[in-house]
Structures are given as structure tokens and as C-alpha cells.
């Protein structure tokens, strides 16, 4: 049979796809995906000649094989996804068990190094191990056991390494609270925020979250951020636009209400929640919030924090497209106000009030943690704003890390004992270290096994993720190849349709499946982007032309028709897909893409709206007090 020149052009898409597939990772190494039947195998098969000059003469079995290969790949991908999901579940369960064995409330202690400003460098507390601290006061020796003790020489790195596992819990869907507690000037802010040279937990955590999000191929993770401070029992939004806090009418921004829904979920009405798509943005907002934080002068610490500063990262965790809603978990990082004894700070007036307010809320926090530890039926969350805000992040299923910061100085020993007593109370008396030696060993062994299991699951999950990626590349190549060569002709050959029917199908009117497509079109676009009558007419004409071309192409009137590779592959238009779908009813590829489009977008911010509690229990602050407070606030940022 002689081959007209234009027929060779028709075959170009197939040849292009063949070439691009060969140069793709799978094409160059088709064996790397076990169990899948790559199209490259098909292409290398002797049954397919090097170049098809006319799609109509491509043997039917080649087309069937290609179709089968696509179906197999889709099946494989679905199964691999299931496998990844179950591996991820295994990893999460192992991590959860580890944290449960270690205790869902963990308490670390960090001893601050001596500072130049410390007058007498006489050691107060003496650490006698990595999990024990001994303090002597007036001949009385007090011993405190903790989950970890960081000595004076411990770096920010050393601290962060121990904090990391709890961050993973937040990514796994648990609510997490990390607190820095301690006397003024012991390094709470240094540990949480750090400096540019020695960044603390917060900036490191932000970086780590984005790092983990990029590695996690089983879920898409997105984040948003809020910062607020609790000052004298009032809440202030640290990320609110400046003007809104200064204007009288916007005072509510500075006195936010805490709302609890019927399920116990807490939301702070009107709190600014900014999306943080990357670390740079997160850092920018965080620096902004820090600058606003209220500080004032006391005789103990020249930049003493007179408030509790709370940073919340909302983690939106979304599986594959079939999951309608993202799971939301909260990661709170809290730099608590100094827990100083008021006489010592020499505080008077407002500073004294600030100190009192801080101490009251710290004591309320201690009560809540102790009640949770003892699994009491009543937990006194309502005793302070701080505990009301954290209500849904301190209870069941949540993880708490309390970092107790202490001074190394002898003169601070009294304060140090107070702080460590708080830590002891938070840890609870049922500490595992009071268990018999044998039990402790069993526990250590169990943790080791679980850690091993977690690592294995993590590695396998990574491998499966890579396999999915490869299979997806291959699948899209197969689909491209198929639609480039057979997409428009299959139905015509098997079930010829009238032109009218073709057009109806193309515009998506009569059949159910097409209705889906039509609905998608309107759903997936904002109203201003939907087609007008005129554009629909133009669209209709274009579709007629495509169908007409396809028909004449198939019926042998090929003289003036060809679809160059670029054209045949760049039709992303949904209507064009509808035509393809109709002309290829047997195939489910077009439908798959439609369904994917239909599934809700996994966007943290979209989801956030859904997750906001609807029924509210409002706790309002006294408005008179708010105004007074607003006028009298002293901030270091104001002074500067
Ligand atoms: N581990 C450390 N290494 C070096 N310097 C430290 C360390 N911890 C604290 N400092 C220094 O001690 C001083 C007081 O620390 P910081 O402001 O963090 O205390 P704080 O507990 O947050 O006080 P406040 O409750 O009053 O806000 C700072 O100058 C800080 O740089």
C-alpha cells in the first residue's frame, strides 16, 4: 500500500511519545518498577513496527495492549497508594506508642549558662545525670527526675534534637504544645526564639515542618500561622495589621474572644491566621509577631516578657484526592511569662500586676496539667485564658512538652526549686522511673523495637512513594500515547454516531457522564470565567470542526488533515476531553481525569473555613478594662 506524505505526519504523536518515553526515567529503565507492565515494553515489542504511518493500520491488539497497560498501571497505582497509606498508619501508630510509653506529657530541664551579668558565679543546682537534677538549699538536698536535663553547655541543636519527635506528632495529626517555663531571665525566650546565630526551637521547628512536608509523599501538608499574647488575662493578636490595633473601633483585635464548640474545639474569634506556604514567609510573619510582643523593664531582666506569647501553627494534612477534607492539627509553641516571685523583681504598680497575672495563669496551667496527669474527670480549664485557649491541645490525644528553664546561680536556688516542683507536678508522681528496674528495661526494649518498626515503615513508605511517582510518569506517557493515536477514532470505528449525537455528547448535554463534565466546568471556575452565549457558540463551532475533522480523518479524507504532536497533546480543554471521552466510551481515562478534577481541592485555607467551630461558647473580656489596658500598655517595641 502506498503511503501518502500526510499520513506520516499523522503518526508523529506516536513517534514523539515513543521517544519521550524512552528518554523518561522509566523508559530508560523499564525494569525499575516491579510488577508493572510499562508501555516501553510494549514499544519494544516486536509486534509493533518502528513507525506507524497510518493509525488505521495499527493492529487492534496493539491498541488493546496499550489500553490494558493503562488499566494495569491505574490499578497498580491505586494499590501502591493503599500500601503507602497502611505503611504510614503503621509508622504513626509506632510513633504514637513510643510517645505514650515515654509519656504524653514530657518535661525537660535546661540550665542556663552563667552570664556576664551574673554577679556571683556560684553553682546552685547540681545535675547528676541526663535525667536527674539535684538542688541544695540550706543543707537540704532536693532531687528531681525529669525526662531530660540539658546542662549549661547544651547547645540549641542538642535541645532541638529532643524536640523533633513531638513535631512529627503534630504532622501526624496530633495537637501538640511546647512550653518554655521558668523564672525570669533563665532563657525561655532564648530557648524558644534564640538569636540569628543561635536560632531556637520555633524557627527550627518552622524549618523542619517545611522540610518534612517536602519529604512526605503520602500526604500533602500545608500550614498557617497565628501569634498572640496573653497579657493580664487579655488576648492580643500579634499578627494583626498595625492600624487595626491602633484604631479605637478595632479594639476587639486586641481583646479576642475564645470560643469553644460543642465538640470541645477551640477557636479564637478574629485571630489573624496567615497562610505560610514556605519557610521564608513563615519567618517573616514570625519576626513581625515577635517585634510586637510586649516587653517592659524589670530589675531582673532588661527585656523581660510580661506576657505569655503563643505561636500556633495549624497543620492541614490531606491524603489523596479522594479525601474530602484535610485533617487539621495545632502545634502550639508557648513562651510563658517569667514565673518570678514578685518581691524579688522589685516590681511595683503595673509591673506587679503583670507579675501577678502571669503567676495566676501559670498556676492554672499547672492545675490543668496535674488534673490531666491524674486523669481526673474535672479539668479546670476555665481558670485562665491561657488554659482556655489550649483546652483542645492539652487533653486526650495531645502531646505536651514542658521545658523548664533554671538559673545556675546559687542565689536563684529558691526559684529553681519552685520551677522544678512545677515540673515534678506536671510529670506526675507515677513517673516510670519509680518503677522497678526490670520494668524499666522492658520499657526501654519496647521503645527500641517500636523505633525500629517506625524506621522500617518510614523507609518502605518512601520507596513506595518513589514507585508511585514512576508509575504515574509511565501512566501519563501511556495516556498521552493513546490519546494521540486512538483518542478520536475508537468509537467511530466501533459505534458510529450521528453528527447530532456527536455534538450533543461534545457539549455534554444528554448523558449522565457528560453532565458530570458540565457540572465540573461550572464548578471548577469562578463565575466571571464561565462561558458567555457568544463564547459557547464559538466553542460549539470549534467542537463541530474537531468532530468533523476527526470524522473526515477517519473516513479517509485525509488530504488536508493532520494533528501535529504539539496540538494533539496540548488539548487540556475540558470540552475537548469530553469529546475524547465520548469517542472512547470504553476507556475510563478521561473519566478519571474528570473525577480528579471534581474532588475537592486540598487547600488548607479552604478547609480551615470548614473546620471553624459553628456553635460557640463565648468568653468575653471586660470592655472597660480593655480600654484602660490598651492605654497603659508599655512595650519595649513602643519604646524603641
Ligand atoms: N542557653 C543560653 N545560652 C546563652 N545565653 C543564654 C542562654 N539562656 C539564656 N541566655 C541569655 O540570658 C538572657 C535572658 O534570657 P531570656 O530573655 O531568654 O530569659 P527569659 O526566661 O525569656 O526571661 P523573661 O521571662 O523575663 O522573658 C538573655 O540575654 C539570653 O541571651
TrEMBL record:
N-terminal signal peptide: none
Residue span(s) of domain Kinesin motor: 104-429
Domain of life: Eukaryota
Keyword ATP-binding attributed: yes
Keywords (A to Z) from UniProt: ATP-binding, Coiled coil, Microtubule, Motor protein, Nucleotide-binding
Composition skew (Basic and acidic residues), residue ranges: 1-21
Chain sites annotated for binding ATP: 182-189
InterPro entries according to UniProt: Kinesin-like_fam, Kinesin_motor_dom, Kinesin_motor_dom_sf, P-loop_NTPase
Record carries keyword Transport: no
One of the GO BP terms on file: microtubule-based movement
Pfam families: Kinesin
Gene Ontology cellular component annotations, sorted alphabetically: microtubule
Polar residues composition bias: residue spans: 22-31
PANTHER family, A to Z: KINESIN-LIKE PROTEIN KIN-14U, KINESIN-LIKE PROTEIN KLP-3
Similarity section: Belongs to the TRAFAC class myosin-kinesin ATPase superfamily. Kinesin family. KIN-14 subfamily.
Protein name, entry field: Kinesin motor domain-containing protein
Amino acid at each position: 500500500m502506498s503511503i501518502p506524505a500526510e499520513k506520516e505526519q499523522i503518526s508523529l504523536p506516536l513517534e514523539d511519545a515513543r521517544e519521550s518515553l524512552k528518554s523518561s526515567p522509566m523508559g530508560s529503565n523499564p525494569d525499575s518498577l516491579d510488577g508493572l507492565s510499562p508501555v516501553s515494553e510494549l514499544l519494544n515489542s516486536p509486534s509493533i513496527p518502528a513507525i506507524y504511518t497510518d493509525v488505521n493500520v495499527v493492529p487492534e491488539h496493539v491498541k488493546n495492549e496499550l489500553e490494558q497497560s493503562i488499566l494495569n498501571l491505574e490499578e497498580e497505582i491505586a494499590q501502591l497508594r493503599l500500601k503507602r497509606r497502611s505503611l504510614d498508619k503503621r509508622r504513626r501508630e509506632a510513633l504514637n506508642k513510643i510517645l505514650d510509653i515515654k509519656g504524653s506529657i514530657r518535661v525537660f530541664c535546661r540550665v542556663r549558662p552563667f552570664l556576664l551579668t551574673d554577679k556571683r558565679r556560684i553553682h546552685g543546682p547540681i545535675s547528676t545525670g541526663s535525667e536527674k537534677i539535684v538542688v541544695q538549699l540550706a543543707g537540704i538536698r532536693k532531687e528531681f527526675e525529669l525526662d531530660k536535663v540539658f546542662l549549661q553547655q547544651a547547645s540549641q541543636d542538642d535541645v532541638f534534637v529532643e524536640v523533633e519527635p513531638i513535631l512529627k506528632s503534630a504532622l501526624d495529626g496530633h495537637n501538640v504544645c511546647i512550653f518554655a517555663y521558668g523564672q525570669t531571665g533563665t532563657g525561655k525566650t532564648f530557648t524558644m526564639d534564640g538569636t540569628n546565630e543561635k536560632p531556637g526551637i520555633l524557627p527550627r521547628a518552622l524549618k523542619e515542618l517545611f522540610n518534612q512536608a517536602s519529604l512526605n509523599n503520602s500526604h500533602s501538608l500545608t500550614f498557617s500561622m497565628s501569634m498572640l499574647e496573653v497579657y493580664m488575662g487579655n488576648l492580643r493578636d500579634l499578627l494583626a495589621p498595625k492600624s487595626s490595633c491602633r484604631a479605637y473601633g478595632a479594639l476587639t483585635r486586641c481583646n479576642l474572644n475564645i470560643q469553644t464548640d460543642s465538640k470541645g474545639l477551640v477557636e479564637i474569634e478574629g485571630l489573624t491566621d496567615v497562610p505560610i506556604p514556605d519557610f521564608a514567609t513563615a519567618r517573616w510573619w514570625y519576626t513581625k509577631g515577635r517585634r510586637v510582643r510586649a516587653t517592659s523593664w524589670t530589675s531582673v531582666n532588661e527585656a523581660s516578657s510580661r506576657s505569655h506569647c503563643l505561636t500556633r501553627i495549624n497543620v492541614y494534612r490531606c491524603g489523596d484526592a479522594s479525601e474530602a477534607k484535610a485533617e487539621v492539627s495545632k502545634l502550639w509553641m508557648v513562651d510563658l511569662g517569667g514565673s518570678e516571685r514578685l518581691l524579688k523583681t522589685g516590681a511595683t504598680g503595673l509591673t506587679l500586676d503583670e507579675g501577678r497575672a502571669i503567676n495566676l495563669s501559670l498556676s492554672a496551667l499547672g492545675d490543668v496539667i496535674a488534673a490531666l496527669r491524674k486523669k481526673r474527670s474535672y479539668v479546670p480549664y476555665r481558670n485562665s485564658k491561657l488554659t482556655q485557649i489550649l483546652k483542645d491541645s492539652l487533653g486526650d490525644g495531645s502531646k505536651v512538652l514542658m521545658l523548664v528553664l533554671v538559673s545556675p546561680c546559687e542565689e536563684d536556688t529558691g526559684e529553681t526549686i519552685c520551677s522544678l516542683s512545677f515540673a515534678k507536678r506536671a510529670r506526675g508522681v507515677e513517673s516510670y522511673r519509680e518503677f522497678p528496674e526490670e520494668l524499666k528495661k522492658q520499657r526501654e526494649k519496647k521503645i527500641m523495637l517500636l523505633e525500629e518498626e517506625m524506621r522500617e515503615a518510614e523507609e518502605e513508605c518512601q520507596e513506595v512513594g518513589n514507585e508511585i511517582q514512576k508509575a504515574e510518569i509511565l501512566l501519563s506517557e501511556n495516556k498521552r500515547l493513546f490519546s494521540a493515536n486512538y483518542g478520536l477514532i475508537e468509537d467511530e470505528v466501533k459505534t458510529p454516531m450521528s453528527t447530532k449525537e456527536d455534538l450533543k455528547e461534545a457539549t455534554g448535554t444528554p448523558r449522565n457522564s457528560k453532565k458530570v463534565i458540565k457540572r465540573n466546568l461550572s464548578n471548577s471556575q469562578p463565575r466571571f470565567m464561565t462561558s458567555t452565549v457568544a463564547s459557547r457558540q464559538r466553542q460549539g463551532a470549534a467542537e463541530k470542526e474537531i468532530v468533523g475533522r476527526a470524522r473526515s480523518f477517519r473516513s479517509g479524507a485525509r488530504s488536508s488533515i493532520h494533528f501535529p504532536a504539539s496540538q494533539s497533546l496540548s488539548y487540556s480543554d475540558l470540552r475537548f476531553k469530553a469529546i475524547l471521552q465520548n469517542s472512547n466510551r470504553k476507556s475510563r481515562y478521561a473519566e478519571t481525569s474528570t473525577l480528579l478534577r471534581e474532588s475537592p481541592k486540598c487547600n488548607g485555607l479552604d478547609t480551615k473555613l470548614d473546620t471553624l467551630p459553628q456553635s460557640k461558647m463565648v468568653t468575653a473580656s471586660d470592655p472597660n478594662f480593655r480600654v484602660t489596658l490598651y492605654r497603659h500598655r508599655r512595650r519595649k517595641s513602643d519604646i524603641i
